[in-house]
Write a structure and sequence with these properties.
This protein is of the alpha/beta class. Helix content is 38%, strand content 20%. The chain contains six helices and six strands, in the order βααβααβββαβα. A hairpin with a 2-residue loop joins strand 4 and strand 5. The longest helix is centred in the middle third of the chain and has 22 residues. 36% of the residues are buried.
Length: 177
């Protein structure tokens, strides 16, 4: 019997389902039909399974919904919703890790500039304009805090939807796997 550990990554919902993304023009982020092929191909090529995180924006507000920055989603209701998603995700992470050592959660993959899932960059409102700035999205903030409380150490890796920036995130993902 093989002693190889199964490897799993938790990924932002829209990586596997682009239909949940807010619909708007501009911003430079590309929209693909179905899934983000480049991210999925990296995970497939490395034999990594995937757990899809719930999209807090879609599950709370559906589509169509107005484009909002992190500031636009900074409400007690939205933060509490993200906290619930983070708690459930960490419960699931612990089940993988506590399953007799047969599984290894190797990464959490977020989407840069997302108000919810940005890892290193998030969209903020500055003088009435939405701009990319350093920081984490609401869900990644809550996920990181819950992981810290539970002593879970898994790298958070952001992948941009902007083609010129995406290569860097994909390289970080490959290195983590």
């Amino acid at each position: 019997m093989s002693q190889q550990r199964d490897r799993v990554a938790f990924v932002s919902h829209c990586i596997l389902n682009q239909a949940t993304r807010a619909r708007w023009a501009g911003g430079g982020a590309r929209r693909e039909a179905g899934m983000l092929r480049d991210v999925v191909e990296v995970l497939l090529s490395q034999g990594v399974g995937v757990v899809q995180l719930e999209c807090p924006e879609f599950s709370l507000y559906s589509n169509p919904r107005p484009l909002r920055s992190k500031d636009g989603y900074d409400t007690p209701v939205f933060r509490d919703h993200c906290r619930g998603i983070a708690v459930r995700a960490c419960d699931l992470m612990e089940r993988y890790v506590d399953g007799g050592g047969r599984s290894n959660v190797v990464a959490i993959v977020g989407v840069e500039n997302s108000p919810s899932c940005g890892v290193n960059s998030v969209t903020r409102t500055v003088e009435g304009e939405n701009v990319a700035m350093p920081g984490r999205g609401h869900l990644m903030d809550e996920l990181e805090a819950e992981m810290h409380i539970r002593g879970i150490e898994i790298p958070l890796i952001g992948v941009s939807l902007r083609p010129k920036e995406q290569r860097k995130g994909l390289m970080r993902l490959r290195k983590a796997l």
